[in-house]
Each structure stands twice: as structure tokens, then as C-alpha cells.
Design goal:
Blueprint: H1 2-12, E1 17-30, H2 37-44, E2 47-57, E3 60-70, E4 73-82, E5 85-90, E6 93-96, H3 99-105, H4 108-130, E7 139-150, E8 153-162, H5 164-175, H6 178-184, H7 189-193, H8 206-211, H9 218-231, E9 232-242, E10 248-257, E11 268-280, H10 297-306, H11 308-312, H12 314-321, H13 327-331
Antiparallel strand pairs: 1-2, 1-11, 2-3, 3-4, 4-5, 5-6, 7-8, 8-9, 9-10, 10-11
């Protein structure tokens, strides 16, 4: 199973396009008697986020739909990208994305940012290897469940669970590794906030962590591991990988999150998360058409100022609970 997963990760680096679906379900375990009336509505019913996606990088084209269900209300949204142009759909109406957002999502600036990110990822992989860190070890009990079909495609079904203890140790080791930190923090600002990064600490060792200037000694690290592993329970992860080209076809994950022991959670005793993502049409052409009747972005700003609830649905209620915010601030 480790070999299959490693090959799938390598294959993913060659993927330039795909279509798929996603769904996230969130359920709350809460004593609503301890909650104010306006907060009850947001935990009495499950929250769900689902949608479809299509993305191609050469040339840039993307089309995503999103449906949010929260507190018994629904909101639908959409995003389209085509070369250096973008559109947003809210409240059933398409709007042109502002130029700065379009620049972020597509065009020369986005291409340059993507190239820069790819270069940094390559450097990070080298740094992780030099530090003796292998992300494949972050999955414990990895096993081959069997061979199954996903939408008619023969696939390997792998299962395991994130190893939070291993992840925490490796992250701390990475933060004290000079080569990794140069990639993560080329300006040195983060290292300065943490008190500097040593040059010769042994990666992954208790002595190295204590000497890293991060303010974390072995006993603090152990306490952190215990707290995080106590909060994140019932972790699961399953992935289906195509036998022919080793592309990921489906990924599911689950977890239950509970408040830290002894802390007042306001009646909320647990949150259960379930995620399901499917992908198909790998490296196939993606066609996106510009939406008809799109209004300028200024029209969306006006609608948000007049009646944000009609545009954001249940999210408008959350903004009302938190005192609201200017739409300009939200877009930033």
C-alpha cells in the first residue's frame, strides 16, 4: 500500500485537469439549553457543503458550483474562470469578478505565482528529504482494503488514519531545520518571531526541539501531542486509486472533534466531520463558457450593502450574529 500511495502522489504531480464532486457534512453534538436562541439554529441541524468542480491549467479554465445548507437555509454559489477573466454567482445572478480577484485567479500574475509555488514545493520536498521527513509516514495503519470499481474504473482501495503524533513531531523538526525554514520563510520574519532557528540541531530529536528557540521543550511537546490527539478522535481516511494510471478517483475522510478537557464550550460537546471527494476525466480538456447576463462587480457590492441576507443566505445570519462587516472588508 505504501508503494501504491507513493506512486499515486507522483502521478498527481502530472495532473493538469480533472472534473469531480465534493461533499462535506458537519453534525453538532450540543446541549442547546446552554446556548442563546440565535446560536441554537446553527447547531440543531447538520451543516453540509457540496458541489461540482472542473479545472484545467493549460489553458486556464475552471467551473465550480457550491451549495451550502446551514440552519435550515440554503445558499448556492458559483465560480467560473476563463484565461484572465473570472465570474462569481450569488443569489442566482452572475457578476464579473473585480480585476484584482481575476488577477489572483488567472492571467500572468497567477501563472507567475503558480510557477513560484511549484518551485517552492520542489525545494520543500528536497528539504523534507534532507531532514529525514517522509509525509507517507503520516498515515498509520495504511492497508490495502482490496480492489474495487469506481465509476467503472478498476481501483485500489487504501485505508488508514492520520498519525497526529508523528505529524506534530515532524512539523517541529521541520521548523528547526535551516534548509526547510529558508524555503518556508525566506525573509526570516517567522524565524525572528520564534527566536531564530538553530544551525545544527538534530531533526526530530528531543534535544533539537528544546534548543530550537521555539519555546517548546520535550514535556511541552508531549502535552501538545496529548491535547491534540484527545481533541481529534475517530480519524479515518480512504482513497481509491486507478490501477491503470494511478490517478486518485475518490477520497473520503472523517473525524470527531471535541473541546479540550476542562474548558467551557458553551454547550457544544463535539463536532463530527465527513468529507467525500471524487475526481474523473484526468488530463482531459476542460471547456468553460462565459456566463450570459453577468452584471458588473459594482452591482454585487450594491446588493450586499442593501440586503446581504438575500445574497448570502445562512451566512448573512452569521454576519448578523457577529455584528456584520463591510462587504469591502469581507472581500479582502
Amino acid at each position: 500500500p505504501q508503494g501504491i500511495l507513493a506512486a499515486a502522489m507522483a502521478a498527481a504531480e502530472t495532473m493538469t485537469s480533472a472534473t469531480g464532486t465534493f461533499a462535506v457534512d458537519v453534525t453538532f453534538d450540543a446541549d442547546t439549553a446552554q446556548m442563546p436562541a440565535e446560536a441554537k439554529a446553527f447547531v440543531e441541524e447538520p451543516m453540509s457543503i457540496s458541489g461540482t468542480l472542473a479545472y484545467g491549467s493549460e489553458p486556464l479554465a475552471a467551473d465550480m458550483t457550491l451549495s451550502l445548507s446551514l440552519a435550515g437555509e440554503a445558499m448556492n454559489a458559483g465560480i467560473k474562470l476563463l484565461d484572465d477573466k473570472g465570474w462569481l454567482q450569488l443569489g442566482g445572478q452572475w457578476y464579473e469578478a473585480p480585476p484584482e480577484l481575476s488577477d489572483m485567479m488567472g492571467g500572468p500574475k497567477a501563472d507567475a505565482a503558480a510557477a513560484d509555488q511549484a518551485a517552492k514545493m520542489a525545494q520543500m520536498k528536497q528539504a523534507l528529504t534532507a531532514a529525514g521527513i517522509d509525509p507517507l509516514t503520516w498515515i498509520k495503519d495504511l492497508r490495502l482494503v482490496g480492489e474495487e470499481k469506481v465509476d467503472g474504473v478498476d481501483a485500489y482501495h487504501l485505508a488508514g488514519a492520520p498519525d497526529l503524533t508523528k505529524i506534530i513531531v515532524d512539523v517541529m523538526a521541520m521548523l528547526q531545520n535551516p534548509e526547510a525554514m529558508k524555503t518556508l520563510d525566506p525573509s526570516g520574519s517567522l524565524s525572528g518571531l520564534m527566536g531564530g532557528v538553530p544551525g545544527g540541531a538534530a531533526s526530530g530529536s528531543s534535544e533539537g526541539l528544546g534548543a530550537a528557540g521555539l519555546g517548546v521543550n520535550p514535556s511541552m511537546l508531549l502535552q501538545m501531542q496529548q491535547q491534540i490527539t484527545a481533541m481529534f478522535q475517530s480519524l479515518t481516511a480512504d482513497v481509491w486509486i486507478a490501477k491503470d494510471d494511478l490517478m486518485m478517483l475518490r477520497f473520503t475522510a472523517g473525524a470527531k472533534i471535541v473541546p479540550p478537557a476542562g474548558e467551557d464550550s458553551g454547550g457544544l460537546s463535539g463536532i463530527t466531520l465527513d468529507m467525500d471527494v471524487t475526481l474523473q476525466d484526468h488530463n482531459q480538456a476542460v471547456t468553460v463558457a462565459a456566463p450570459a447576463g453577468a452584471k458588473p462587480f459594482s452591482a454585487l457590492e450594491e446588493a450586499m450593502e442593501k440586503d446581504p441576507a438575500s445574497i448570502l443566505g445562512p451566512l448573512g445570519g452569521i454576519l448578523g450574529m457577529t455584528g456584520g462587516m463591510g462587504f469591502g472588508d469581507a472581500t479582502q
